[in-house]
Amino acid sequence: MILRIDGKQIEAKKWDTILSAAKRNGISIPSLCHHDALENVGACRLCVVEVKTSSNGERKLVTACEYKVAPHIEVFTHSEAVRRSRQTTLDLLLARAPENKLLLDLSRENGVESTSYSTSPDANECILCYLCTRACEKMGCNAISAVGRGQGKSIQPPFLTVPDACVGCGSCAAICPTGFIEMIDMPSKRVIWGKEFERAKCESCGAPLIPVAYREWAIANRELPEDYYLQCQECKRKELASKFSGLGVS
Amino acid sequence: MEKTLVVIPSKCTGCGTCKLACSMVKGKGEIIARSRIHIHTTGPDSHVQTTCLQCVEAACMKACDTGALVRNVETGAIEVNADRCIGCGLCEIACPFGHMHFNLQTGKSEKCDLCGGDPACARFCPHGALEYK
Amino acid sequence: MRIRTASDLSQWAEHVRKREANISIQIKVCGGAGCRAAGAEVLRDALIQAAGEQQRKIEIDFDKCLESDANTFIGMTGCQGLCQAGPLITMNGELLVGVRPKDAADVIRAASGEISMPARLYYRSNPGGTPLKQKSEIPFYAHQELLALKHCGELLPQSLASYVHLGGFTALFNAFQKSPEEVIDIVDASGLRGRGGGGFPTGRKWRSCVDASKAGDNECYIVCNGDEGDPGAFMDCALMEGNPFVVLEGMIIGAYAIGASQGYIYVRNEYPVAVSRLRKAIVMCREAGLLGDNIFDSDFSFNIELVRGGGAFVCGESSALMRSIEGKIGEPTSKYIRSTEQGLFGLPTVLNNVETFACVPFILSESGSRFSKFGTEQSKGTKAFCLAGCVKHTGLVEVPMGTTLRDVIFTIGGGIQNDRPFKAVQTGGPSGGCLPAEKLDLPVDFDELTQVGSMMGSGGMIVMDDRSCMVDVARYFTRFLLGESCGKCVPCREGLYQLHTLLNGISKGIATKRTLDDIELLACEMKKSALCGLGKSAPNPILSALNNFRDEFEEHVNLKRCRAGVCAGLTTFVIDETKCTGCLRCKSGCPVDAISGSANQTHVIDEQRCIRCGACRQVCPDDAVQVAK
């Protein structure tokens, strides 16, 4: 179907959202909580765009990540209303995490230098984008979740204790856009969410690998035989090299 | 038929130009160790380059549950769609040949994508030890 | 007994009518929340005891009472309306007010005709007025029009026989004589709009659900929203407690119309009485064959499951409510696709409010055509309101749409307590707004209220006198919402925090001239960009207060003065020498001993010690405690 974004005619698929259609056509819309592999939640409100439907010509703000494209709609990604809304959102987020680099960069791109609001005393760098909880859900573990409500909401394991369901995959830490989730990798163990995981060791050289619990989880949940998870990168490459040695061609 | 990246260990001198080229193209040359092609010294004057084999039945793809690993139908390369990668790191450990790289800074996996059809390693190898044909 | 036909219903009703004639004394104690708080349960026990002492044959279970030779029935009903004068009793058609346990023996004696009823137990408009025995004589009741609340306070909520006796389930039978499309047509034609606040036409909602479920060849669900959480609103509570059957009947009719076989009724767990009565009502309906398989021996089967809420205000929002029923976190989701297309468990769902469903049986009854005779052009029927705050007659009222605020507050509500000046009325709870005296002649309907920046909401109506500070009111609602925001989207979560901080600044006297503009800007942005209805309407109390009472806000900011004497940082209380009679009440009421003076001498407030709580002002009978200019 054809729709107009910022005056430009673009082709979109019927399952497209405004965000995915825009992205494919090189139109950039800022977002914090959207991830292509995860279900959209519409929490950050940064990807708001104005949509004008042909039915009544009214322009309304919608989140580009959730709004499905429809024929003949007109989308404005950088109108005055959109700009003001994004600035307010970033201003509010900065009040929560005034020092965060990602937010500062994003804010400056959108014309906000620093927050005009007061910082709350218990603010932290978690911007509650839900990427971690959704990544955890995607992995099938559901070890963490949003707890509480309003300003005091935070991402926590159940009952604020060490999470039983966590296998130490580290996806939450990897996906966290502000670097708030802390994961410590030591030679013998990985620590995340207050839980310590013993790390598996490379069969050949003893180098630390992923946590034992994660390996067991992977064996149970992915269609790969057990021996796929036994060696470190370096040893696997060496083994491959030694097989190649003398063969000449790959 | 799609082209293949051919390694000719007999011609390799272990000079490391391929690694430099790879890290220049893929990571602004900051960290050569993060090159997606590796050189192994297997004996005196004997070197073997290894990189992703773009396996037909790829373990990395089986390990990935988010659809972040997709095969490029034109080049035959398995590519990482960073927008879909959630950083679980399973592909890295699953690759039997050690050619999936998990970038701790970005929280995403990286791998050889044959530079979209013009692999820099082959282009810059001064000894003809890498061919793309 | 299983009900199969209309004659089963009428025979049962006739049976109840005959047996009921044998009960010479029927005492119905109001079991509404207000009366229970005023001691209605103790009163009922006292009445039972007194009746026992007077050798009456008592039965407290209405169903058993009908089948026994008891001549006295003492039971509890739902809310009887006039909460202010509770505990209320309806005895053989007469209304008794302010009945205390010590009056129990007299009441029973009067009921048996031994003595005449003590006049103090009858309602009077003013202290010296004539005692009024019938509801129809009392202005509070006389100006109301009860459709949804029709049998509330009269019916025994734990007895299906009582409901059938009052004509219950005849509407359901009527509906079954028609095709589902015809039922939707009737509801559509009645002009019924959703009573939960949004005011979406009910018939249209049902039809779009039918269309969506037919198009996708899917099942559909019907859900009743009983998660009433607005401060000062208790209509749904009163309905579920007072007449659970009418809600169920409305749901069954709705289910028949849209072809749903499963319904859910979501009740907040803070209403334990409503939960237990609904549960019992569901069981009774199932036993009577009015729920379950082959209702009225037709092919239609329908079940209702009761789901208790977990204490989150936001779960009253439809998408959050559905997530909660699904067992997920009760957080709203975007509604770019209507729930009539993708609702509960991703299937087409009709979600209506308790009061909406309670209106449906009336619309499908014989006199259903009367429904659209009430109301305005765009808002038909009646609407229940909860009158609360500084009004003389607080309580539960139902009036035709389009009745003016003045009529509700002054004619029915009896005006402002202590005849103080009216200042504002807050409608629609935390999503609504405050309207000033100039808007008193506004006819109350969905569109009129929205136009002036307030909202019908679920029907809370909080009346305020000149001792309410509008900054404080805005701050109160913002704090309420701050605590209830689910925290999912940034504008609501962070915006409410900032709005609350800015309002705190105003009431502390540290705000600057820019503060009001900042508040307005942020509030307007929140309205546009928040995810759900709660966030979008959260700035309404502030914006409407700012629009209608801007001078008061400016006074706080510029003159550092709170005229109502509420904002502690901006208030100094003084005692007016000309009014003070030296009664000592303020002195003994002061929690910090800041008031000096002995009996019959003018009292003086020590400004240093005073914490500006206003307790002295509350207790002063002569209005001598005043806010220093």
Write the layout of secondary structure elements.
The complex is a heterotrimer of chains A (250), B (133) and C (629).
Chain A: E1 2-5, E2 8-11, H1 18-24, E3 48-52, E4 59-63, E5 74-76, H2 80-96, H3 101-109, H4 131-139, E6 145-147, E7 154-156, H5 171-175, E8 183-185, E9 189-192, E10 195-201, E11 208-211, H6 212-221, H7 233-244
Parallel strand pairs in A: 1-5
Antiparallel strand pairs in A: 1-2, 3-4, 3-5, 6-7, 8-9, 9-10, 10-11
Chain B: E1 5-7, H1 17-27, E2 38-43, E3 46-50, H2 59-63, E4 69-71, E5 78-80, H3 90-94, E6 100-103, E7 108-111, H4 120-124, E8 130-132
Antiparallel strand pairs in B: 1-8, 2-3, 4-5, 6-7
Chain C: H1 6-20, E1 25-30, H2 33-37, H3 40-53, E2 58-59, H4 62-67, E3 72-77, E4 89-91, E5 94-96, H5 104-111, H6 139-142, H7 160-165, H8 170-176, H9 180-190, H10 202-215, E6 221-226, H11 235-242, H12 244-258, E7 262-267, H13 272-287, E8 303-308, H14 318-326, E9 349-353, H15 354-364, E10 382-389, E11 395-400, H16 405-412, E12 422-427, E13 433-436, H17 446-451, E14 460-465, H18 470-484, H19 490-508, H20 513-529, H21 533-537, H22 540-548, H23 550-559, E15 573-575, H24 585-589, E16 595-596, E17 604-605, H25 615-619, E18 625-627
Parallel strand pairs in C: 1-3, 2-3, 6-7, 6-9, 7-8, 10-14
Antiparallel strand pairs in C: 1-4, 4-5, 10-11, 12-13, 12-14, 15-18, 16-17
Describe this structure in words.
- The complex is a heterotrimer of chains A (250), B (133) and C (629).
- Chain A contains seven helices and eleven strands.
- Chain A is of the alpha+beta class and 250 residues long.
- In chain A, strand 1 and strand 2 form a beta hairpin.
- In chain A, helix 2 packs antiparallel against helix 3.
- Chain B folds into two domains: 70 residues, Alpha-Beta Plaits, CATH 3.30.70; 58 residues, Alpha-Beta Plaits, CATH 3.30.70.
- Chain B starts with a strand and ends with a strand.
- Chain C folds into five domains: 121 residues, Glutaredoxin, CATH 3.40.30.10; 206 residues, 3-Layer(aba) Sandwich (Rossmann fold); 80 residues, Ubiquitin-like (UB roll), CATH 3.10.20.600; 90 residues, NADH-ubiquinone oxidoreductase 51kDa subunit, iron-sulphur binding domain (de novo design (two linked rop proteins)), CATH 1.20.1440; 56 residues, Alpha-Beta Plaits (2-Layer Sandwich).
- Chain C contains 25 helices and 18 strands.
- At the A-B interface, helix 4, helix 5 and helix 7 of A face strand 1, strand 2, strand 3, helix 2 and helix 3 of B.
